[in-house]
Specification:
CATH class of the largest domain: Alpha Beta
Helix content: 25-40%
Mean pLDDT: 95
Structural class: alpha+beta
Number of domains: 2
CATH superfamily of the largest domain: ATP-grasp fold, B domain
Strand content: 15-25%
Bound molecules: adenosine-5'-diphosphate, magnesium ion
Shape: globular
Amino acid sequence: MPENTTSIVTETNFSGHSVKRGKVRDLYDLGDELLLVATDRISAYDVVLPTPIPRKGIMLTQISKFWFDFFSDSVPHHLIEVIEENAPPGLEDHLDNLRSRTMRCRKTAVVPIEFVVRGYLAGSGWKDYLRTGSVCGVSLPADMKQCEKLPEPIFTPATKAEIGEHDENISFERACEIVGEDCMTELRDRSLDLYNRAAEHACKRGIILADTKFEWGEINGEYILIDEIFTPDSSRFWPADKYEAGRDQESFDKQYVRNYLTTLVDAGKWDKTAPGPVLPDEIVNNTAAKYKEAMDKLAG
Ligand SMILES: Nc1ncnc2c1ncn2[C@@H]1O[C@H](COP(=O)(O)OP(=O)(O)O)[C@@H](O)[C@H]1O
Ligand SMILES: [Mg+2]
């Protein structure tokens, strides 16, 4: 990956091509293929913040590429190639905005479920557990602590929310009602297997993979892995040597930004709705460094 690609990309607009914007990625439909441009946008609580994190999109794309390659023997996925020096026809003028951060992908019909696997009790899982003693209908032992390791990894699906809405944790049964039991059973088992194998790799690199989210898409009657995988945006990564249950963990992921934002919420300066607050330079630099550290540790 070229180290001198320093330009920040917050938004792309390639004339002659219609763009669909996710919170982080700009999507271009090229007919058979999809172009997924990971920008430097960062979102928290489903709000895109006004301040980009330099090179974040490059790091997300390179980390996803590492994992797609890592699993390529066993799991079909959507990545055709990451654009480095060859732009698709008609987009040659935009190579600087595409390079290292763009995936040429197979276009699929997205399965409208977030496939979440948790090995530890954190985030919305911890909140659900405090309220109900279970997560997405999976009951757990009593008296578990925040961020404690679960007896075994659990599958906790969520809905895929529309723009501006929040994903909602749902039971496995509810997910089956939405997309069918065969689909859910197959993709649950494959998601759990991927989590276990990635967690084992991360562990060797001194990182706890606390939880993660996958997306699957259907093409020619087959389910393939799409979107991003095991990135700091889709996963919680904790340094193993600093891990201790019963409190928040230091992390290599977005949690650092969420924690900063929580201080604003607690001070009554932000209510978790758009527009989000501008991030101070220190937070931007530390976040970029955390993403870089995650990339180097996991994929280096
Ligand atoms: N191979 C694919 N085929 C179709 N859609 C895809 C594919 N890979 C990713 N997507 C979709 O592209 C979008 C990625 O943009 P992103 O900014 O991550 O969106 P979001 O705000 O939903 O997280 C998601 O809506 C995802 O479902
Ligand atoms: Mg996404």
